[in-house]
């Protein structure tokens, strides 16, 4: 096939090799070149394609700037080019495909978690070492129960209402109120123990949580498939706690607290792997950073409570 383009309508055809003729965007064919066939309007000319590196290309009048060619990749609403249309809030399997999204999500979760733990530790220290505050909360149980009511209401709202935990600044407001209420509850509980017991429980909790987090990041076992078993364990622990409440005793308290500490230690590994995603079967959405921080915070708090119960019962 000849590489010379046929002239469109309004341009003369190629009847001969006259060098004075005007041709469509190209010089006249060399002498001796065979005459071209008359222009057929049923075959439109091929639109010129700009070179990739030639940014100053200007298309001729009436010709689109770009002809047929590959469509540039479409970026999705999360900055990637995967082309998926699923909402990651509804369990999109590709929501963690980008490593930068994963790292940013983990940094955000642990930053929120550290802020929660700092607030909780400060309030527990005040309730433990400040004698007037310690005496007041021992004599006024309304502080504990009012904190419990606020904490439970915020927890139900964040767990059941997706708009509450996903939309800023509402999610931060609810999380802040929940953290303060939980901290006041823990302060009231810690005021019933000696200060050295509280410090010992906090130290053990820090060591256990750090070791479990490292284990969750390094192990090849997938704990994200244990969601149903862990929920069944919580139900059994709840029934066990009711039985222990009616049958008081040091041995029963230590056994109950040990089971609770073990269960929530596994929960900490489970929630950490859910947050990490990657090789694990299930993962949490990047938009659920408040919910992920809330889960880790509750795991650490429960481990602290049960370890404190074990220390208090063993030293009582």
UniProtKB/TrEMBL annotation:
One of its GO terms (cellular component) is membrane. The chain crosses the membrane at residues 109-130, 142-160, 172-193, 199-217, 224-247, 253-270, 290-313. It is a multi-pass membrane protein. It is found in: Membrane. Keywords: Membrane, Transmembrane, Transmembrane helix. Residues 27-53 have a biased composition (Pro residues). Residues 1-54 are annotated as: Disordered. Belongs to the BI1 family. This is Protein lifeguard 1 isoform X1. It comes from Thrips palmi (Melon thrips).
């Amino acid at each position: 096939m000849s590489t010379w383009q046929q002239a469109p309508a309004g341009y003369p055809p190629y009847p001969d090799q006259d060098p004075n003729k005007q041709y469509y965007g190209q010089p006249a064919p060399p002498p001796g070149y065979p005459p071209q066939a008359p222009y057929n309007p049923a075959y439109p000319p091929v639109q010129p394609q700009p070179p990739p590196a030639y940014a100053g290309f200007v298309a001729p009048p009436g010709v689109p700037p770009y002809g047929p060619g590959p469509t540039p990749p479409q970026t999705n609403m999360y900055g990637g080019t995967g082309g998926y249309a699923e909402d990651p809030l509804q369990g999109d399997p590709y929501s963690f495909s980008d490593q930068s999204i994963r790292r940013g999500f983990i940094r955000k979760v642990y930053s929120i978690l550290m802020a929660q733990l700092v607030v909780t530790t400060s309030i527990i220290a005040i309730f433990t070492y400040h004698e007037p505050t310690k005496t007041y909360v021992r004599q006024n149980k309304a502080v504990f129960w009012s904190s419990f009511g606020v904490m439970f209401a915020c927890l139900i709202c964040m767990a059941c209402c997706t708009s509450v935990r996903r939309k800023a600044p509402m999610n931060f407001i609810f999380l802040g109120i929940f953290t303060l209420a939980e901290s006041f509850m823990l302060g009231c509980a810690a005021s019933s123990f000696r200060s050295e017991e509280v410090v010992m429980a906090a130290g053990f909790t820090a060591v256990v949580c750090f070791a479990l987090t490292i284990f969750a990041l390094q192990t090849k076992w997938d704990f994200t498939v244990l969601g149903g078993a862990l929920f069944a364990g919580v139900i059994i622990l709840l029934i066990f706690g009711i039985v222990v409440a009616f049958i008081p005793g040091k041995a029963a308290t230590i056994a109950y607290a040990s089971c609770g500490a073990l269960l929530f230690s596994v929960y900490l590994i489970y929630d950490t792997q859910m947050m990490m995603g990657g090789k694990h079967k299930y993962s949490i959405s990047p938009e659920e950073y408040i919910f992920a921080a809330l889960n880790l915070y509750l795991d650490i708090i429960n481990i602290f409570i049960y370890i404190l119960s074990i220390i208090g019962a063993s030293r009582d």
